[in-house]
């Protein structure tokens, strides 16, 4: 993309209404525009990051064998009356009446609807196990929306639902989700720690939240600091291998890590060596639940087993806050000058800064770089504006592309351009061809 | 995907409520489930087609230089009061009140909001031309939703908006959209004819609708039948070349083609040779508008020109019915046995039918084909169920994958499998390696 033809409305001033770094930086970098309290437009740069996160979530869900579909944003009230949640849900549920006076709602979550889909089409144990998920816009009418996309009202979420014949099968689904979530967050450059949590209005016995450590997090967290060293890395996971999947879960959850809701100071003091006890704050970026037959029983989602019995299915639900992750990643990765995107989610793979726009040789070198990077399947952002170098650098730093190639007449005289890491600030002089190879190598296999 | 692990709830019976082929077939093929009147869940197979259509729309919009963003589903009423459309829009607009008694609405279209984004961030002619678009769920509270996704209430639509300094520039944007739409539809296997139409509630002088000829279309259309032979094909389009783009538009619109709204029997009889006059029905799958300063003037979307004057920008809007296209494609491409997907949008590239599940050699051959097709970057659907051949064929025919590879012990004895075209029914005996090459060749470059 050529910046001269893009829509990147960066702001010079820090917006007064933004209290936390991610909100400030998303506004300043022209990623979002608030349309009303807690409801945002995703401007082109923000939309790119959102789509990257969505893509990673899709890929990791499907790698784990989960099947995508798409449920509508609006739901009929009847389904929620069946489960008993229509009256229980409270004023966060946006209730709507259509022109024929039917009660509807903007879905805050989809346990009822997915159970309805299941019971309409599945009746035999032979069709299980089954995990269905979707990524869709949801709405919760927060009284005080704040922190930008971190606590918005209209938000994009992945929610998935497993259907299993037995509790044991459902717990494998639970574990499978935990491992796939760990990989999902790692691909986004995040360390998200699974913590034993409280089930809230979803219900159920087993639940873990995934928290990204950040000072601006809404939850107080208590953890053994060795838990932050766990890494899934590139190890091969067979999601059908129950023992392997369970062992990974054990590895990531054996050390103490809990939110204030479930913190137990007795266990904390008895089991965590004092030098490893850490209290901090975390941003919740996902949660998994096993809730058994809580929805399948009242809603009649049953299957026939091999011996002819009719049993309600065991279910769980599993959510990732897709739009919230954009904010969480920024909270975890920024500095005074702006955002620092992890390679996995960056809106463009690298920037090209032309130090002397209009100079024939410099322009030609930039054009060649732009074309060659695209030829490698990369998506560069070329700052071809007629602007001062300082302004171009400030924009690149603000929007946080992890790599920048700087092209100027002085370097070109020696056949060189400069490749700079946004994270470290380190620069290297390279030939244009070397720079292209280097950047292509960084993104190879992603 | 292995069918034994997929969620493909095909129906044996034809649902009584479905009046047209696409609605019937989408229900029977397990593509959608109605959740309430005019609101559907997209089951896994339907979701795949929807995503393919969305991807093609994105690719062709970006090829034309248009920039994606994403506006929210819910909009504040104030914006619509500014343009004067809040009261004018009628009961099809779903009006919502939030917990703080603010008036909101589920967006039926986005002229107001995009104008608000524009005026907040753009003030100079130097930032133009600019075309922004998004693909988002919209809602129109139809009194009588019917025909499945063809006339639903919650529907997925691409809507784009151009901003230009002069009328001349805006008309180039209009033409650019026409050409990019022609390519979009062709990639989906559709012949969509641009017809001079009526502007309706969007307003404006110039507008064309794109119609797919089909007996079940909602519009009566009058056209010179030579218009159906026009094809954009693979010709290279430079979307910045005004003359070239205008010439393509001229080529596709010079012959008479109008909906009943704008039909003029005087011109019809004077200009269309009698043997070429055709009256038929069409499904609207898109529409483009030029409406000048209709929104920019009341909403104050202005730019400063080179000579310092402040002028309202010239705008147009441009829509493609993404979810509706799924139905339109089926209306245009099906037979008694089911859907026939064009290669551009098919949910899976080909099917593999195992005629003797459980036979070691047949299973092994199917597994090898499955792996080899995936190795070519293809996405096959392998029917590995323990079911009769007749049932497997019926399912494949119903869901309409354009190519099927049939594997049985008899063929394998001679080292052969059978490759069958869903469209023609023609079969060929090939070695498995040849079949893989053939299918890969069909999809090469898509």
TrEMBL record, chains A, B:
Which CDD domains would you find in this protein's record? ProRS_anticodon_short, ProRS_core_prok
Domain of life (superkingdom)? Bacteria
**GO BP, one example?**
prolyl-tRNA aminoacylation
For this protein, the record's InterPro entries field holds:
aa-tRNA-synt_IIb (IPR002314), aa-tRNA-synth_II (IPR006195), aa-tRNA-synth_II/BPL/LPL (IPR045864), Anticodon-bd (IPR004154), Anticodon-bd_dom_sf (IPR036621), Pro-tRNA-ligase_IIa (IPR002316), Pro-tRNA-synth_IIa_bac-type (IPR004500), Pro-tRNA_synthetase (IPR050062)
Compartments where found: Cytoplasm
Listed A to Z, the keywords are: Aminoacyl-tRNA synthetase, ATP-binding, Cytoplasm, Ligase, Nucleotide-binding, Protein biosynthesis
Location, primary (coarse class): cytoplasm
Q: Where is the Aminoacyl-transfer RNA synthetases class-II family profile domain?
A: 38-342
**Can you state which reaction this protein catalyses?**
tRNA(Pro) + L-proline + ATP = L-prolyl-tRNA(Pro) + AMP + diphosphate
The reply on keyword NAD is no
Q: Which GO terms describe its molecular function?
A: ATP binding; proline-tRNA ligase activity
UniProt KW Magnesium keyword: no
- Can you cite an annotated GO cellular component? cytosol
- Enzyme Commission code: 6.1.1.15
Q: According to its UniProt entry, what is the function of this protein?
A: Catalyzes the attachment of proline to tRNA(Pro) in a two-step reaction: proline is first activated by ATP to form Pro-AMP and then transferred to the acceptor end of tRNA(Pro).
Q: Which family does it belong to?
A: Belongs to the class-II aminoacyl-tRNA synthetase family. ProS type 2 subfamily.
Q: What is this protein called?
A: Proline--tRNA ligase
């Amino acid at each position: 993309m050529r910046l001269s033809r893009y829509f990147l409305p960066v702001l010079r001033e820090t917006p007064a209404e933004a209290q936390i770094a991610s909100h400030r930086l998303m506004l300043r970098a022209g990623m979002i525009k608030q349309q009303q309290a807690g409801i945002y437009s995703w401007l082109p740069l923000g939309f790119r990051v959102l789509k990257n996160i969505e893509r990673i979530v899709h890929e990791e869900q499907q790698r784990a064998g989960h099947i995508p579909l798409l449920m509508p944003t609006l739901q009929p009230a009847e389904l929620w009356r069946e489960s008993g949640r229509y009256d229980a849900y409270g004023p966060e549920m946006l209730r709507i009446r259509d022109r024929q006076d039917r009660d509807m709602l903007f879905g805050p979550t989809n346990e009822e609807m997915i159970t309805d889909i299941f019971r309409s089409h599945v009746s035999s144990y032979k069709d299980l196990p089954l995990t269905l998920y979707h990524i869709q816009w949801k709405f919760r009418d927060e009284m005080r929306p704040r922190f930008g996309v971190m606590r918005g009202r209209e938000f994009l979420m992945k929610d998935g639902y497993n259907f299993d014949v037995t509790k044991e099968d459902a717990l494998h689904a639970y574990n499978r989700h935990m491992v796939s979530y760990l990989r999902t967050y790692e691909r986004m450059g995040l360390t998200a720690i699974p913590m034993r949590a409280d089930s809230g209005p979803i219900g159920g016995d087993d639940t873990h939240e995934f928290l990204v450590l950040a000072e601006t997090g809404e939850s107080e967290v208590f953890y053994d600091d060795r838990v932050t060293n766990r890494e899934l890395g590139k190890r091969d996971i067979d999601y059908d291998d129950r023992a392997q999947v369970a062992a990974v879960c054990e590895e990531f959850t054996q050390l103490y890590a809990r939110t204030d809701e479930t913190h137990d100071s007795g266990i904390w003091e008895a089991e965590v060596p004092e030098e490893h006890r850490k209290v901090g704050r975390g941003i919740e970026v996902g949660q998994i639940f096993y809730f058994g037959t809580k929805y399948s029983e009242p809603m009649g989602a049953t299957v026939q087993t091999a011996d002819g019995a009719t049993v309600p299915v065991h279910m769980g639900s599993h959510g990732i806050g897709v739009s919230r992750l954009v904010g969480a990643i920024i909270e975890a990765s920024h500095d005074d000058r702006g955002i620092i995107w992890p390679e996995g989610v960056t809106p463009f793979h690298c920037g090209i800064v032309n130090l002397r726009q209009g100079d024939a040789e410099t322009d030609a070198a930039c054009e060649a770089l732009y074309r060659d990077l695209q030829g490698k399947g990369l998506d560069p952002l070329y700052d071809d504006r007629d602007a001062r170098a300082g302004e171009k650098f400030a924009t690149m730093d603000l929007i946080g592309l992890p790599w920048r190639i700087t092209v100027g007449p002085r370097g070109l005289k020696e056949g060189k351009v400069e490749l700079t890491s946004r994270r470290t600030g380190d620069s290297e002089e390279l030939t244009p061809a070397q720079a292209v190879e280097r950047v292509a190598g960084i993104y190879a296999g992603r």
